Amino acid sequence: MSLNNLGKPGVVVHGVAVRPGKPTVLGVCSGKPVIGLPGNPVSAIVVAGLFLVPILRRMQGLVNPPVRRRVTARLAHNISSVPGREDYVQVRLIEREGQLRAEPVFGKSNLIYTLVKAEGDDNAYRSIPWFAQGRAG
């Protein structure tokens, strides 16, 4: 049975400009939010953090998201990206010569070990906007 048969309007978004995060499906079926998470564990965690957690918070009546720790660091290595796509990269934070550096933990989205080697608990990902050059936020 397809998502569109479960209630109107059905699929609202199929695919998002996020890496990792393919495939992602967002929909509404008879007034209930529906999220199709990617199969790869790391991709699923990224998409859940971006879409599922805010929806669950809203359903619980929590309108103000918790303040998350935010740091600015210089990327230790170049990371290729595509214009118009937001990349979420696992990093280790390293202080070197008085500067905070974001060292990418490279690996495919199906490899759980990249999460283990990354910095922090729920802050294992750093958003690197497509327009950023030499910095991670």
Task: Describe the main β-sheet briefly.
Answer: 5 strands, mixed
Kindly report the oligomeric state of this protein: single chain
Question: Could you state the order of secondary-structure elements as H and E?
Answer: EEEEHEEEHE
Overall shape: it is elongated
| N-to-C span | 41 Å
- Individual helix count: 2
Q: How many β-strands, per DSSP?
A: 8
In terms of DSSP E residues, the strand content is 25-35%
- The helix content, as a percent range, equals 10-25%
**Cα-atom Rg, whole angstroms?**
17 Å
Catalogue the unreliable spans: none
What does this structure look like?
By secondary structure, the chain is of the alpha/beta class. The protein has helices at 41-59, 113-117; strands spanning 9-14, 18-19, 25-29, 32-36, 74-75, 86-96, 99-104, 125-128. Strands 2, 5, 6, 7 and 8 form a 5-stranded mixed β-sheet that branches. Strand 3 and strand 4 (32-36) form a beta hairpin. The radius of gyration is 17 Å and the shape is elongated. The termini are far apart. The model has no long low-confidence stretch (mean pLDDT 79).
In short:
With 137 residues, the protein is α/β, with parallel strands linked by helices.
Main traits of this protein?
single chain; about 140 residues; alpha/beta; five-stranded mixed sheet; elongated
Topology:
Layout: E1 9-14, E2 18-19, E3 25-29, E4 32-36, H1 41-59, E5 74-75, E6 86-96, E7 99-104, H2 113-117, E8 125-128
Parallel strand pairs: 2-6, 5-7
Antiparallel strand pairs: 1-3, 3-4, 6-7, 6-8
